[in-house]
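User: Here's a chain of 337 residues. Predict its fold as tokens.
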Amino acid sequence: MNDLLERARQGKARAIARLISLVENDAAAAREVTSGLYKFTGKAYVVGITGPPGCGKSTLVNEMALRLGSSGGSVGIIAIDPSSPFTGGALLGDRVRMADIAARDGIFVRSMASRGNLGGLAEATSTTIKILDAAGFDTILVETVGAGQAEVDIASVAHTVLVVEAPDSGDEVQTFKAGIMEIADIFVVNKADRPAASRTVRALEMMLHTGSPAAGGHHTSQQSDVEEIESTSHMAGSWVIPVLETIARDGKGIDELLLKVAEHKSYLDDSGEWNRREERRSRREIERIMQNQIISRTVQNVLPQKRDRVVTAVANREMDPYAAADELFDLANRYPP
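Assistant: Prediction complete.
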């Protein structure tokens, strides 16, 4: 493992791919990889790209990566594809769509299946970002599955979040309900050559201008205390969220988008928001790991028959879910691993 970690830090593509495969399939490996690489992370700039299916996220990511690579930067791309709820399989179509840039020097592309995780991210995404960060990639682009309004977990791993919309997708305002609106740092109306593009842009600008609770309250859906909300309010008041138009298929508007992304990165650095977001992100990651450990301990230490008995009691209304959770938690902690 140490040799694999070292080769990944040197930017060796095969070692990076091998590590990602390990953390996708083995929680213990994810822990070992994170422990070995964590002190070398914290330098990469993570940009999340989210939005409904069909809005052109993959094409947009493709064009952004090409330009970033051409300017001398190194780019890691994590493209999350949805898994089948029946078989657990995934097409990994982004691997096909991005095949032309995957072979370029300085660009690494990894498609990952969501494996049923809600919020638009695969469970191993956070560790994969750390691997690419430690490997020396300057920018990491994370494209989520395109689940729409529920796809807000990207705010917990990205420094800058692009929310992408396309015209003619139905009710544009309906697309951006509370969760998806709150995570945006930059709105992108892609496929702007369509007739309805100007209407989509006006609708978004109107929501931002009127100060809708669903607009500009960045990351509030992920926050849990007053201090974090106050920090977010300061950010929303200082950064003017732009609405940009692109035609990613033709490469139009991409340079302007990248300029605005760079401007947001400068804002994060100058305002101290970068460090505040790192603290919020770290808190959420620790909480998620603790939750997973509690569940894992319960599975390991409580016999399946006992778990089934508690579940049956809840289903038969003989026990409420809170009492059931308390009982399982107590049983799990009687016999520490």
